[in-house]
Amino acid sequence: MAQTTKRALADSMKKLLAKSPLDKITVKDLVEDCGVNRQTFYYHFHDVYDLVEWIFREELAEIAREEINYSSWSEVLYRLADHLTQNRALILNVYNSVSHGEVTRYVNKAMRPYVAAVVEEQAEGVKVSLENREFVTDLCTRGAAGLMCNWIETGMRRSQLLRLEKFERAVDGSLRLMLKNFEEK
Q: Which residues form the HTH tetR-type domain (predicted)?
């Protein structure tokens, strides 16, 4: 039941975001649209920003539902870009309503576990400390998330999305090399 209520609130938020910026949407607007009371909303979420973060996490998890590995990580980035494009009005209303640093934090936080899984896969057989694996994870997460945020910032223009292809080329084969550069002898 809790997941059903959360999804209903998420659907209402997405519906409202298609028309209004996030900073203009209130809990009152959400509960009226969804047909639940304020107490129910606050049982599940602290505020509207918490709901938006939950939506991002859930949707990214759905996009990356299959196990991610080195050969498929870029496909997940493209699926994410397609999903964001399909929800362009919603994404731009969120992006233009909150601090851009907050959006960057959402994207980094959501993408990091998937990048970490790929880094761990590439670290197999390489004697590299956890600290250095986390450094490589942070570097790659921030690169991919930065490109995604830059794409959103430019109004999600198709030409900017081509930068993902360049990122894919730049990273191809280099994760293992980065890890080997930190290998303990």
A: 3-63
